């Protein structure tokens, strides 16, 4: 199997089941024009996040890694009236593009972008004793993933779902000898979850236009 085949299947699924949307497509185009890295989730992955959030009737969603707001749009559209997405972004340039994309999609009132280090912002949310989140999507730098997990867990409740993107790393997740800090981060996360009675978790491998990778899903007990 080749990435060409994976891309073809993603195109087929997108054309038939996901559909093409001017605001989502425009968000990707404006992100590319602004020089943002092309690391947003794929359209089928974006819709998967949307469906999961809708299926669990999430009202409060926390996202780590806004980028240009592509996945943020998918998540915000899953919310019922009065729902809220809080999304964390380190780079002002990325946040600026995301704000424009969210404005164009008519979602500004549903989304709060918090700018700064995710660890600092998570600590601030904990200190503020904010209402727990029903759904968490972590799509941020992998060396700090274990720290993000321990903090986000404090911001959830029993029944919350935590999803972490890019955890398989082209299969390097299974390589105990890897010295890649990204691989070390996701391996440490898996080791933590294997012995954490507060959650039950699994990882699903994925292929597609984003290559060979995967999602980790953890349900808070």
Question: What does this protein structure show overall?
Answer:
There is one protein chain. By secondary structure, the chain is an alpha/beta fold. The protein has one domain (3-220): Rossmann fold. It is built from eight helices and seven strands, in the order H-H-H-E-H-E-H-E-H-E-H-E-H-E-E. The protein has a seven-stranded mixed sheet, with helices on both faces. Helix 3 (43-55) runs parallel beside helix 4 (70-77). The longest helix has 16 residues, at 3-18.
Question: Which labels suit this protein?
Answer:
221 residues; alpha/beta; Rossmann fold; seven-stranded mixed β-sheet; 8 helices; 7 strands
What is the makeup of the main sheet? 7 strands, mixed
Provide mean pLDDT, rounded: 97
N-C termini distance:
38 Å
CATH architecture: 3-Layer(aba) Sandwich
Q: Enumerate the strands of the largest sheet in spatial order, edge to edge or round the barrel.
A: 3-2-1-4-5-7-6
Helix content: 40-55%
CATH class: Alpha Beta
Strand content: 15-25%
User: How many helices?
Assistant: 8
* β-strand number: 7
Question: Helix/strand-derived class?
Answer: alpha/beta
Low-confidence stretches: none
| CATH homologous superfamily (4th level) name | Vaccinia Virus protein VP39
Question: What is the name of the CATH topology?
Answer: Rossmann fold
């Amino acid at each position: 199997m080749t990435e060409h085949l994976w891309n073809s299947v993603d195109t087929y699924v997108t054309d038939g089941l996901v559909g093409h949307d001017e605001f989502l497509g425009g968000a990707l185009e404006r992100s590319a024009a602004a020089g943002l890295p092309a690391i947003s989730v794929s359209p089928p992955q974006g819709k998967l996040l949307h469906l999961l959030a809708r299926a669990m009737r999430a009202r409060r969603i926390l996202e780590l890694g806004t980028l240009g707001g592509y996945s943020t749009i998918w998540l915000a559209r899953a919310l019922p009236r009065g729902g809220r997405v809080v999304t964390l972004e380190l780079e002002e340039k990325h946040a600026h593009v995301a704000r424009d994309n969210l404005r164009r999609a008519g979602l500004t009132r549903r989304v709060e972008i918090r700018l700064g280090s995710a660890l600092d912002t998570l600590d601030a949310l904990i200190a503020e004793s904010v209402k727990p989140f029903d759904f968490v999507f972590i799509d941020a730098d992998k060396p700090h993933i274990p720290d993000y997990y321990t903090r986000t867990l404090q911001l959830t409740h029993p029944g919350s779902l935590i999803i972490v993107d890019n955890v398989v790393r082209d299969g390097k997740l299974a390589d105990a000898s890897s010295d890649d800090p990204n691989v070390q981060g996701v391996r440490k996360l898996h080791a933590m979850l294997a012995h954490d009675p507060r959650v039950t978790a699994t990882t699903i491998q994925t292929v597609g236009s984003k290559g060979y990778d995967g999602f980790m899903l953890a349900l808070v007990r």
